């Protein structure tokens, strides 16, 4: 996993956001000659009340286009720390 610069749009709204790129693997099996686009997404959110509502969230996704079967290396992206904190 490698930390990368977040987009200006994220930095404008979220002071504590961190962005990462990473590699992973997935296994694909299908009928011969099938081409596939695969999208995997995971999002999470925490909210709590401490002298006002606050919270944070993350989003993680992988998109892969693959032909053939077997294990494939894929690239992913993670954004964490998007949120509202009392110190802001």
In helices, the fraction of residues equals under 10%
The structure class reads: mainly beta
Evaluate the radius of gyration: 17 Å
Chain-averaged pLDDT: 86
Give the beta-strand count: 5
Strand content: over 45%
What is the string of SSEs from the N terminus onward?
EHEEEE
Straight-line N-to-C gap:
28 Å
Oligomer: single chain
Tally of structural domains: 1
Poorly predicted sequence stretches spanning 5 or more consecutive residues: none
Number of helices: 1
Strand order of the largest sheet: 1-2-5-4-3
| Coarse shape | elongated
- Main β sheet profile: 5 strands, antiparallel
Can you characterise this structure?
The chain has 88 residues and is mainly beta. It has one domain (2-84). Helix content is 7%, strand content 67%. A hairpin with a 3-residue loop joins strand 3 and strand 4 (53-67). It is elongated. The model has no long low-confidence stretch (mean pLDDT 86).
């Amino acid at each position: 996993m490698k930390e990368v610069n977040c987009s200006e749009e994220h930095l404008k709204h979220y002071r504590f956001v961190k962005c990462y790129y990473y590699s992973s693997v997935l296994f694909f099996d299908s009928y011969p000659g099938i081409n596939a686009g695969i999208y995997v997404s995971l999002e999470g959110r925490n909210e709590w009340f401490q002298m006002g509502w606050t919270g944070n969230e993350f989003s993680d996704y992988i998109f892969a286009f693959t032909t053939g079967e077997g294990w494939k290396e894929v690239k992913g992206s993670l954004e964490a720390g998007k949120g509202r904190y009392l110190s802001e």
